[in-house]
């Protein structure tokens, strides 16, 4: 078991395999690098609502 956060795990995967397939849903494929970009956008949106580092959210 690892102590990485989801964001840290995505960052690590994007560094190691930027073009690697992060997920597939129906006919859409998203690379680890694209996942990193999407999570950064989501973090920005959460930050706009006052959610910050150390806050716990459910997925």
Please specify the SSE layout and strand pairing.
Elements (H helix, E strand, L loop, with lengths): L5 H11 L4 E5 L2 E4 H17 L11
Antiparallel strand pairs: 1-2
Helix pairs in contact: 1-2
Strand tally is 2
Strand order of the largest sheet: 1-2
Which series of helices and strands comes N to C? HEEH
| Alpha-carbon Rg, integer | 13 Å
Structural class: alpha+beta
Average pLDDT confidence is: 91
Sheet of most strands: 2 strands, antiparallel
Please give the count of helices.
2
What fraction of residues sit in β-strands?
A: 15-25%
Low-confidence stretches: none
Notes on the protein architecture:
The chain has helices at residues 6-16, 32-48; strands at 21-25, 28-31. It is an alpha+beta fold and 59 residues long. A hairpin with a 2-residue loop joins strand 1 and strand 2 (28-31). It is globular, with a radius of gyration of 13 Å. The chain starts with 5 loop residues before the first helix and ends in an 11-residue tail after the last helix. The model has no long low-confidence stretch (mean pLDDT 91).
Which descriptors would you attach to this protein?
single chain; 59 residues; alpha+beta; two-stranded antiparallel ribbon; 2 helices; 2 strands; globular
Concise summary:
Helix 1 (6-16) runs antiparallel to helix 2. The protein starts with 5 loop residues before the first helix and ends in an 11-residue tail after the last helix.
């Amino acid at each position: 078991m690892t102590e990485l956060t989801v964001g840290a795990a995505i960052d690590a995967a994007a560094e190691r395999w930027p073009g690697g397939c992060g997920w597939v849903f129906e006919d859409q494929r998203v690379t680890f690098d694209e996942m990193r970009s999407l999570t950064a956008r989501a973090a920005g949106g959460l930050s706009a609502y006052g959610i910050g580092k150390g806050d716990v959210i459910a997925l």
